[in-house]
């Protein structure tokens, strides 16, 4: 029995079995069946259907169009419609409809079955092909479908939650909310299902989206109190859960390591920068003193997420002529300040916390040093001052500021430098210099660095790749912007700005979009560090007192945490980090050949060996010996000559890997074809079975070698072509070689397909391309919206390859399968592409399909040759150690 699918589109399937092939899809003729299926007796007058489906057409032409559509149906679906001169009736013994089953499931209260049947809106996509009358009819059918879903979704979700199947409840709730985006019950059901399913962060986000919409409609007071309380509980859990800080900052990036952003008009010069204290600091030692714990209450009783904080932060405070590094421990409603040690400021702990970058006095200024286990190692001896700014997440590189005083007493200039502790090398981060103390923050992944410099009287925030390339402005304003700090997930930057008159906290995406103001306090904010993924801490100065504050980025709630009054710098928050520890180019072919397209990817791992996310815009590719191969896109390598190219890929210069290949010539083999087709005598019935509507055609002459041409002739809806009637032996491999001239014109529905099937395929499946071949090449022409491609298909994968140039002229193409080898495409005797992995085993006998669609053009296939073994051979090298190597671990640009 045939099945008419109406929910989610219109298609006619050959049976009701799962996975049944399509007989007809995306055809206006199916609207005839859909109209009849929705009539009470499944019958309608001919003139009624003709007027409905062909509005604005005179009656005789509409009836003629109806007859043609019925003929098309009978050709592909048999006697699915019973006809007489006046009316049409569905043959219910030959056809069933998913909409009937949908209605019956609602009547039987089988709500899970209702949702399984609902694949989308009724006759989706058909409304674009017809007039307003049919659109209204489709809308009426959708209304009754939605009425059934309003009952089915809550019932099915409730059942899943009752039996503890929270995963199913969440998936159903997401569908419910997407189907009814403006329905309060649907949105609240989604929030509750996410919360019950343990997806706390997603529940809070869904709630915030819902709350904002309700506030816009002045309906926020209608949100149930029970739901509000549950969300507050989830917020508290999020703030205290260490699992949410899997990626974070080991410090605040050093953005506050001195507190001296020279532009700060409201902040005094820190005590360690004054001439009177330099000498005293120079001779003070790092003395470890006994811990003295001072417990201070919160200034205001904490509520919400801020009441559940359980973390610690390092700050610097002034005690007379001494700087003290202090740990502020926050647990619930208490804040403990634990004095740790006297230090030479400003210190900067490494991400591991085992070492400190400190400053040392020298005859010509301040030098950088590294203090570890009581031992001090000098890092810099340059003239002027060097001050620490930020550690890389792995602790191998240190960004610092070098101050060079002018000889005539003018404004000092600061340069941002990066020192590798592995190679002991130094490089400038940016060509920009600053006339005020800069600030720097390293992203959690290690691939990007945010910094703020003052260049023209104002100060702006920038982001640059880890190797100093691709510099871009993130926050620029006539007012002062500074102290950029990455969020633990690397998705946002927090910074301080005076753009609204006072120093307040803002966040922005690393591309400069989605600027958000978080605070509007009377205090002057400075220094930033994320306490967890959603709460920011900062220092604020008010009434000559500087203390620690925090803001909830979800709600905007701000709380003052301490009343110590003498804090000078916010050093950072120790958090677990997941930087990109290593990268590896994949796949790793040893041998390539001139003309070949090779598609490479760069995989990344974190220190624990887990897969890490590496955005494509951070991957940088280059080729050593670019006369042999060139990169024409991200990971797209084109080999052009013989030799040994080396590919270098880096994660924005943070980690890099190399791959060396050998380019060798492709060797043609001497083999005789088992099938030679010239098309000069038309389409031979003993060799080919034509299919489609319209049918394909052959034309004598016009192709290379005085061969004839095969024209697939498919229209805008369906392909047409031929499939071999005789099996082709492929146990030892197979090569299908053909000439083709592809006159693509930019119109849609211009394709040529060459495929190999494991069995002879029914015409109806070939027409709708509903059958999966063993392998296939699909040449698709360019359109206004997309470039032309060759799609290489296997049973489980599809790879799009850019269309080679000059396809409008005759070229020789070959599709080659070799046991245990990748799928290969050869063009004009040169390797064009190889699949990343071997094709799975195939039957000994294969059937060849040549088909396509050629709307308003001609796509011609000339002489065809089929070989029962490989026609071309790519030389292979013995396995090398490179096959098992990991990517390199360089800490800078390769």
Report on the architecture of this protein.
With 894 residues, this protein is α+β, with helices and mostly antiparallel strands. The protein has four domains: 2-238, no CATH class; 271-572, Neuraminidase (6 Propeller), CATH 2.120.10; 582-665 and 878-884, Immunoglobulin-like, CATH 2.60.40; 668-873, Jelly Rolls. 18% of the residues lie in helices and 38% in strands. The protein has twelve helices and 61 strands. The strands form 16 sheets. Strands 46, 49, 50, 52, 53, 54, 55 and 59 form an eight-stranded antiparallel β-sheet that branches. A hairpin with an 8-residue loop joins strand 53 and strand 54 (789-794). The longest helix has 31 residues, at 132-162. The two termini are 64 Å apart. Mean pLDDT is 83; it is low at 242-299 and 882-889.
What labels would you give this structure?
894 residues; alpha+beta; Neuraminidase; Immunoglobulin-like; 4 domains; 8-stranded antiparallel sheet; 6-stranded antiparallel sheet; 12 helices; 61 strands; flat
Query: What is the count of β-strands?
Result: 61
Through-space gap between termini: 64 Å
SS content category? alpha+beta
What's the tally of helices? 12
Radius of gyration: 35 Å
- Which spans have pLDDT < 50 for at least 5 consecutive residues? 242-299, 882-889
Number of domains: 4
Beta-strand share of residues: 35-45%
CATH fold field value of the largest domain = Neuraminidase
Q: What is the correct CATH architecture of the largest domain?
A: 6 Propeller
Which CATH C-level class of the largest domain is it?
Answer: Mainly Beta
**What is the residue-averaged pLDDT?**
83
Net shape: flat
| CATH homology superfamily name of the largest domain | TolB, C-terminal domain
Helix content: 10-25%
Major sheet, described briefly? Answer: 8 strands, antiparallel
